[in-house]
Amino acid sequence: MGNFVSFVRKEMLHIIRDPRTMLIVLLMPIVQMLLFGFAISTEINNIDFAVVAPKQSETIRRQVERLAVNDYFTFKGYIAPQTIDDVLRRGDVDAVVVFANDYDRRITDTSGANRSRPAIQLIFDASNPNIATSGSGYIQRVLQQESPLTAAMPETHTMYNPQMKSAYNFVPGIMGLIFLLICAMMTSISIVREKETGTMEVLLVSPARPLQIIFSKMIPYFLLSCINLMTILLLARFALEVPMTGSMFGLIGISLLYILLALALGLFISTIARTQVAAMLVSGMVLLMPVIMLSGMAFPVENMPGVLRAVSCIVPARWYIDAMRKLMIEGVHFDAVLKEFLVLTAMTAILVTVALKKFKDKLE
């Protein structure tokens, strides 16, 4: 145990004394240009919406059909008024269109007697402000084709992020990116550096077991990530005023799980790369690019072609960022992110098993 603690202390001192600067490789701009020019779009489309209509008149059905056939929207069905909050929190839909009981009469009323009450309400999940901002304008333009009267002007409600603050959107994404940078990239570079300089052989002939050496290199980055997690949460809550009304147990638990996953990913990369430059190249292409482009951090996953949407399912950051948005912004309980937790748990178990086995094979 004393040897293990000494190795951990050595790694901590080495990290403190040898700060590294991340290099930008030549291939990354080419990939970025291809993604931005072909696959990635900031235009909002495929907005999932549900409808609340106590009386499904012919006029209302025409309005719903007009939205459903539009490329920007995907109709998910009619729901009851009391289920609006539940379907939005679960992420089943991005918006709910609520028609008044007397919608038909209001859109034909020219007296202005009903202008104080809206004929249509639009309720959005504004945890992603891009969807709420653009979607509101799209839906209003389509609905007003039926009647341009003021009474038909929808009343819009933005839930979970009424001020449409961009910080609510980027804080979970930054968390997913930072932990990969610290854990996966730096862990892989640290282990590869030992092999490249020949000091790994010296460590392996020491009394410590090989797994102890590996864990001693991973623990400092785990501790640094825990400190960063606390710092990010404090800054998000008190500086950026992100509400974080959901389960703190779930938020911290999933974050620690994601950190373990990133550490295992870094260990796996170290078994593939032979030099530090190769480790940075693999980390940059395999980790950073998918996190920025395919996780939903900067661009909605719904906008991507079907192939890239399928690829995004194997990007751990996608599931982590989705869970963080629900926990931090929507204020849900842990059971609402159980799917994301199980996916991350399965990914972590697979990566840890494969990484340790592959690293053991390398040592032999």
Characterise the protein shown here.
It is a single chain. With 364 residues, this protein is an alpha/beta fold. 62% of the residues lie in helices and 8% in strands. It has 14 helices and five strands. The protein has helices at 2-17, 27-39, 58-68, 84-90, 103-107, 129-143, 167-197, 199-204, 210-239, 248-272, 276-294, 306-312, 316-330, 338-363, and strands spanning 47-52, 73-78, 95-99, 120-125, 155-159. The protein has a five-stranded mixed sheet with strand order 2-1-3-4-5, with helices on both faces. Helix 7 (167-197) packs antiparallel against helix 9 (210-239), helix 10 (248-272) packs antiparallel against helix 13 and helix 10 (248-272) packs parallel to helix 14. The longest helix is centred in the middle third of the chain and has 31 residues, at 167-197. It starts with a helix and ends with a helix. Mean pLDDT is 76; it is low at 21-30 and 32-38.
